Amino acid sequence: FGQTSVYAPNGLEIERFPEHKRTLNGKIRILVEGDCAVDYKNVDESFEIIDRLDQEKYEVWYMSYNAEPKDKYRVDKFFNRVPYEKVPEIYAQCDILIKTSLLESFSYPPLEMMATGGFVVAVPNGGNAEFLRDGLNCLLYDRGDIDAAVSCINRIVNDHGLRKTLYDGGLKTAEERDWSKLTDRVVRLYD
Question: Which listed residue, 32, 151, 160, 180, has the most CB atoms within 10 A of its CB?
């Protein structure tokens, strides 16, 4: 329409998300985040992936702002309507985030998980395309390819070199999105 547009990136208060390196020793904790009552959140797919994982090896936490877990979901611990200031504690206690949303304006959960040093397995969408990089800060798989998603999780668990790459790349991505580094850039848009 003949207008000049400008772009302000989304940021994160990174100090809210203390980082620690995951060892993946013992039971590995998977986090699923999203409202299962909203189709485009595609949470059922996350639990299809969970169903393919060894129950003895993986513990599953589910965090949803609105909906309760469906009866068919295998959930070891459920978090509902968690106040934002408590969310970092949940990410910090989990090892791998499975994020299967098909539509997001901006997808904060992967960024928040990376800020804590955790790992991300996700379906690419418009809200995560600007910061998720397959094999560098996360592992991506195509929607509906459950075998590929399970393979991504197994690769993270079994490949120490990949884990180091994803850990370093995830922290770098989160640090680049720290609001303290973006504030001047946003303010300049109004000049």
Answer: 32
